[in-house]
Amino acid sequence: MKRTGGCACGAIRFEITQDLLGIGSCHCSDCQKASGGGPNYVALAAQDALTLLSGSPKLYHRTGGSGATVARAFCGDCGCPLWSLPAHEPFIPVKIGALDAYEDLAPQMQIYVASAPPWHTIRDDIPAFEQMPPKG
Questions:
Q1: What is the rounded average pLDDT of the residues 30-41?
Q2: What angle do CA 42, 47, 49 make, to 5 degrees?
Q3: What is the pLDDT of residues 37-94, one digit of tens each?
Q4: CA nearest 12: which of 58, 68, 49, 63?
Q5: Rounded to the nearest 5 degrees, what angle is found at the Cα of 4, between the Cα atoms of 66 and 19?
Q6: What's the whole-number average pLDDT of the chain?
Q7: Local structure of 109: helix, strand or coil
């Protein structure tokens, strides 16, 4: 299913041309900063499924929990977070709020729950991982 999205001011537009790989929420401290304090809700898209239609996002590079570099894409005009580019992963975590329609998306897992403050809601009806889930 194709999905479209963009930043709050409309300077950046993108589309996802394949079905999403999964939906999750991340409670790591970097995601809490990017979201303004809450968990970060993402839709995982295959790397070759995201196409930039207009604009050019700015990138902020940081070392992630795996020790590898993660680039976080955002609009340089309005500051809206868009997606991340984790090194050595076959997917791109797209911020759910950057999608035009997301009411049909709900988290299927929660990661980095060990970093969540006590007031974050950790659901008991979906998998929760202290950090990243095991690969494989």
A1: 90
A2: 85
A3: 999 999 999 999 999 999 999 999 988 767 778 899 999 999 999 999 988 888 999 9
A4: 58
A5: 60
A6: 93
A7: strand
Q: How many CA atoms lie within 13 A of 35 on its CB side?
A: 21
Task: Evaluate whether 14 touches 34 at the Cβ level (below 8 Å).
Answer: no
- What values do phi and psi take at 29, rounded to 5? -65, -35
d(CA 61, CA 85) in angstroms, rounded, equals 9
Exposed, middle or buried: residue 126 (CB in 10 Å: 0-12, 13-18, 19+)? Answer: middle
Q: How far apart are CA 32 and CA 83, in angstroms?
A: 14
Using alpha carbons, list the distances in angstroms from residue 52 to 7, 29, 108, 122, 135: 12, 28, 26, 33, 29
pLDDT at 67: 78
- Predicted pLDDT at 136: 63
Cβ neighbours of residue 32 closer than 8 Å, sequence gap 6 or more:
38, 39, 40, 115
pLDDT at 133: 85
